[in-house]
Amino acid sequence: MGIKVKAIERNVAFEKGKQKWAFVMQAELYSQLNATKVIEEAAVRSGLPKAVINAGWSAIGEVIAAWATEGHSVAVPGLGSLRFGLNSTAVEDVNKVSANLITRRYIIFVPNTDIKKELEETSVNITCYDRNGKVVKQVTSTDTPPTTPSDGDNPSGGDTPSGGDSTGGTGSETGGDGLE
Fold first, then answer.
1. In the structure, what pLDDT confidence band is assigned to residue 87 with cuts at 50, 70 and 90?
2. Which portions of the chain have biased composition (kind: Gly residues) (predicted)?
């Protein structure tokens, strides 16, 4: 099964009264799988009882939340790492700096190399819709075009769309497990 994508014909003109139509692609969200479903599947795949998986799931969630809110980049096993970020309003006067300037708090996820490679190798099924919502074309692609800049032309820096080119790690030069 591939990644489902929809390409919808939209007016992409920035000027009022002007029209410039183009097909804009976005990934389709299948559905959100709840924790119970994920825990059941993990129990089947691992051979461990659901209660054990559930306890581990809860503990890992608590640890990730606690460490990430302390400012750490936290590894998510088999996927990558996450950390918190924020946007704020800039001020010229240091006396005006306050938490009220924060306009948005969000999570930054940095996938590891394996998950990025798997995503690049997954086929894509595109359904094209015209501006009236009618299906006008369907495309199935198994090619693997580059999804991240490899020529260093990335305004975020590094070789990932979110910036950086690290696959995670402990931040320790001693090779520890990150729990020191």
1. very high
2. 165-180
Q: How far is the C-alpha of 63 from the C-alpha of 153, rounded, in Å?
A: 36
Residue 37: its H or E element: helix 35-46
Instruction: With CA atoms as reference, report the closest residue to 73 among 112, 108, 97, 34.
Output: 108
Give me the domains of the chain, ranges plus CATH numbers. 3-140 (4.10.520.10)
pLDDT at res. 176: 39
Residue 162 to residue 73: CA distance in whole angstroms = 14
Task: Please state, in angstroms and rounded to a whole number, the distance separating the CA atoms of residues 78 and 74.
Answer: 12
Q: Which two tokens stand for residue 169?
A: 């790690």
Two tokens, residue 86: 């924020």
Structure-block tokens of residue 32: 């959100």
Q: Report the predicted TM-score, pTM, of the whole model to 2 decimal places.
A: 0.59
pLDDT at 104 over 60: yes
First-to-last CA distance in the chain? 41
pLDDT of residue 179: 38
Helix, coil or strand: residue 36? helix
